[in-house]
Design a protein that fits this description.
The chain is α/β, with parallel strands linked by helices and about 220 residues long. Helices cover about 45% and strands about 15% of the residues. The strands form 2 sheets. A 5-stranded parallel β-sheet has the order 2-3-1-4-7, sandwiched between helices. Monomer.
């Protein structure tokens, strides 16, 4: 089964992707993870990607398409995959279709997690992380026992640069301008399915499982 996961930043795609990967035994391929590993290793690709990501912009198509095509040729993708963070534009979607056609395959379903923008702003701007041990919190949904302090190691919690209101709004603007047309693209192809991302994690996953189960 070949699945694409769509939705705005902060829609909970990463959480659902892990659950889907485990239940349906397909690799979760996140372009974000690929970029982060390159950024951490300070590779030429990582340095180039970071210059765009830091501004809240998308990494150019030719860079992204190349690394995704390379990843899809690995052995663990023979029986399917879950793409998270790609495609982000119609041009990338067309490139992905071409990649699949070359191997005589096609995308089975495109899952769209829908979440209102105000909900996303509240969810993302409220996130706090511990720079020392990596603990994760939310000022409203998962607050630390002592305000501003990590429960595990007591370090001062921080807000990541990409979780500030200005950056989140920029990312949503980029999503609406460049990624939203994908919804029409996959709807026209007859493979788009939507789930409500404001529900509890297990309820969202239940809806997704029903959709994917019908594909098997």
């Amino acid at each position: 089964m070949r699945v694409i996961l769509l939705g705005p930043p902060g829609a909970g795609k990463g959480t659902q992707a892990k659950l889907i990967s485990e239940k349906f035994n397909i690799p979760h391929i996140s372009t974000g993870d690929i970029f982060r590993s390159n950024i951490k290793g300070k590779t030429p690709l990582g340095i180039k990607a970071k210059s765009y990501i830091d501004k809240g912009q998308l990494v150019p198509d030719e860079v992204t398409i190349g690394i995704v095509e390379d990843r899809l040729q690995k052995d663990d993708c023979k029986n399917g995959f879950l793409l998270d963070g790609f495609p982000r534009t119609v041009a990338q979607a067309e490139a992905l279709d071409n990649i699949q056609e070359k191997s005589g395959k096609k995308i089975d379903v495109s899952l769209l997690i829908t979440v209102p923008e105000q909900f996303i702003l509240e969810r993302m701007t409220g996130r706090r992380v511990c720079p020392s041990c990596g603990g994760s919190y939310h000022v409203k949904f998962n607050p630390p026992k002592v305000e501003g302090k990590c429960d595990i190691c007591g370090a001062e919690l921080i807000q990541r640069k990409d979780d500030t209101e200005d950056t989140v709004k920029k990312r949503l603007t980029v999503y609406n301008d460049q990624t939203s047309p994908l919804i029409s693209y996959y709807k026209n192809n007859g493979i788009l399915s939507e789930v409500d991302g404001t529900d509890a994690i297990d309820k969202v996953f239940g809806s997704i499982s029903n959709i994917l189960g019908a594909q098997e």
